[in-house]
Amino acid sequence: MKFDFDREIDRFGTDSVKWDVGENELPMWVADMDFRTAPTVIDALEKRLSHGVFGYTLVPDAWYEAYINWWRDRHGVTFEKDWLVFCTGVVPAISSMVRKLTSVGDSVVIQTPVYNIFFNSILNNSRRVLESPLIYSGGKYRMDFSDLEEKLSDPKTTLMILCNPQNPVGKIWDKDTLAKVGELCFKHKVTVISDEIHCDLTSPGASYVPFFSVSETCRRIGVTCVAPTKTFNLAGLQTSAVVVADPDLRKRVDRGLNTDEVAEPNAFAAVAAAAAFSGGGEWLDELREYLYLNRLLVADFVSSEIPSLRLVDGNATYLLWVDVSSLTSDARLFTDHLRRTTGLFITPGNAYGKGGEHFVRINVACPRSRVLDGLKRLKKGAESFVRG
Question: What are the CA-CA distances from residue 289 to residues 118, 294, 295, 330 (Å)?
């Protein structure tokens, strides 16, 4: 490989949220990679830094061009420059849109288990969460369209937040599934926010389908949130984009983002995004291969060494979803035990809503040596855990 993903980087003392742990603890929880970002990004940031003046910053044409060209070349879809709106992050964008596109007391549908911060964006703005649990059968997930339509038909439901690819289960939704979501939401006059922040982190040979690309209906009712932050490990730079095809919907979204003061970049945000999407393709291809091999390593180890656990099939994200139902009906008991007895820090599935209680989420976006360390701790913890 041209890029060194085996290098262990000491992140203690860098104010890292992920690594704010004890000396002998191993954090494999929050969606944050332990790899240096692509060299093209570092070079662009160093050049910008050397200028030495960091005043108020516009969104440059290079930022728009980078997004448009990346989605065209990488994902085979096109969108117009006017569709793009800068935002400081996907979560700020979602929270802003919850406020602008719904009213206090409205219901927002999410498909659980799902990214836990969706709950915060809804509840913190005095809206109501409506969970439509995914169906887990035969080790795989699918949408429960009967339940979904029931929740969408509620007169108080005005918004759905879709996760595509799905975090934490690692599922890439196919075109037919997304089209059906779009049709149901259009039928019931529900706007869709599609969080697609993990879209570039697919297994080699796998690709995702952007919600806005599925149909004219999806473009009319949909808002898509994308960013380089997960893909290139840039979360701390606060940079993302909102893609809105419909001009009336875009006007409402844009007004909300500007009202909430989350539509202006810092001096490095647009520079990093443009550099990543313009020159980071080769780095990303090697990263995807590395992450895929990490997944295979975990699958083989769990199958042979920890038969009480089961890795759920997934082809996106670097977050592995592990079934621990043979050990416990409350994953929090298991993750607490792991951290207390082995130092392994992973996330209980309870955090992701209904259907997550029997699962844990493990982040394998780290050097293989750390993955092996984590697996040994996981085995030790599983063997010493008393079923609860």
Answer: 29, 9, 10, 33
Helices (H), the chain: 39-51, 61-75, 90-101, 117-123, 145-152, 175-187, 216-221, 229-232, 247-259, 269-279, 281-305, 331-342, 368-384
Residue 26 carries which DSSP code?
Answer: E
| Tokens encoding 39 | 């060299």
Task: Give the DSSP H or E segment for 322.
Answer: strand 319-323
Q: Which two tokens stand for residue 232?
A: 């290139």
Q: Render pLDDT for 303-321 as a digit per residue (tens, 0 to 9).
A: 999 999 999 999 999 999 9
Ordered domains of the chain (ranges, CATH): 26-39+281-384 (3.90.1150.10), 53-279 (3.40.640.10)
Question: What string of DSSP letters covers 332-383?
Answer: HHHHHHHHHHH-EE-EEGGGG-TT-TTEEEEE--S-HHHHHHHHHHHHHHHH
pTM of the model: 0.97
Tokens in use for 100? 């602008």
Distance of alpha carbon 303 from alpha carbon 313, whole angstroms: 13
With b for 16 or more beta-carbon neighbours within 10 A and e for fewer, the 37-62 pattern comes to bbebbeebbeebeeeeeeeeeebeeb
Neighbour-count burial of 8, counting CB atoms closer than 10 A to its CB (0-12 exposed, 13-18 middle, 19+ buried): exposed
Amino acid making up residue 153:
S
DSSP 203: P
Distance (Å, rounded) from C-alpha 311 to C-alpha 295? 9
The tens digit of pLDDT for each residue in 19-74 reads 999 999 999 999 999 999 999 999 999 999 999 999 999 999 999 999 999 999 99
Instruction: Give the contacts of 210 (CB within 8 A, at least 6 positions apart).
Output: 71, 75, 77, 164, 194, 196, 199, 224, 243
**What is the sign of the dihedral through the CA atoms of 338, 339, 345 and 351?**
positive
